Amino acid sequence: MIITSELAMEKEKMDLKDEANGEEEEEEEDPSSSTLLDLTSYQLHDLDSVELPLTLTELDLTSNRLSTLDPRIQHLSLLNKLSLRQNLITDDAVLPLSSWTSLSQLQELVLRDNHLKKIPDVTIFKKLLVFDVSFNEITSLHGLSSVSNTLKELYVSKNEVPKIEEIHHFHQLSILELGSNKLRVMENLQNLTNLEELWLGRNRIKVINLCGLKCIKKISLQSNRLTTMTGLEGCIALEELYLSHNGISKMEGLSSLVNLRVLDVSSNKLTSIDDIQNLMQLEDLWLNDNQIESLEGISEAVAGSKEKLTTIYLEKNPCAKSPNYTAVLREIFPNIQQIDSNVFS
């Protein structure tokens, strides 16, 4: 009977120790009182050989071959976390969840990397904090309107979603991950007043629109269709900004982002470094794969962060071919630890 890999290994160690030392065998922990059951990567097709103690608060079934939900799961009334990541779960297979009211206390539900084509019905989970349906085949966010407004983290990356919708009631949401979808417009974000992280990389977005949000600390819009970075001016709490692999030709709208620590504008069409001279907290600056011609003026361009900056990437710009390229940058930035791939002790 499978219990957990950790428990099995621990028992083996105890048996070996007793055999070597002649000690009396220690009493084995009663598996019926377990609170965590981790069956990651057991390649199980079902749970018939597995004991499911009613005391479980966490059940991790990641990386198996499950295509149905074991009906015994519905009796785990103490369950807080359920992970079915990387299985063979379909829309029909997940249907029973919607009626398993004994699981209503569930706080974290992970259905990442399965075969879902729509948002499953999770209405009964009134205390849900984390909901992950990334890496599926979901074509719409329809169904999110019935998800509990207690939600703090929502992951729907790597699907086929064309529109941001049905998220207006998530006032407690702190992380929203919608990367690798088919989004063209940033919209319906205005009620997410506690949002701190917004991940929208690998979409088809042309214009930045944060809908008035000001608490965001991390934004990723990598690999979109942006030609300008305007639209970020009000995000004064922003600490990390990722805009690589777009078509941006000018650095602008950045001067008000006084808390910015990480700025990635690599793989764009920049010809100069602008609008960051007052950013006193900047530590990481990624400018590689652009069209910046010269290192002349870089000292003034980053005047506010010369002492703070520890990492800068400028490779694959014309300026990276300048004589004494590395020496010049090390002189400008006295506390630099990394220039491109070169790390300094």
TrEMBL record:
GO terms for cellular component: cytoplasm. Residues 1-35 are annotated as: Disordered. The lineage of its organism: Eukaryota, Viridiplantae, Streptophyta, Embryophyta, Tracheophyta. This is Protein phosphatase 1 regulatory subunit pprA. Residues 8-20 have a biased composition (Basic and acidic residues). InterPro entries: Leu-rich_rpt (IPR001611), Leu-rich_rpt_4 (IPR025875), Leu-rich_rpt_typical-subtyp (IPR003591), LRR_dom_sf (IPR032675). Signal peptide: none annotated. It comes from Lupinus luteus (European yellow lupine). Residues 21-31 have a biased composition (Acidic residues).
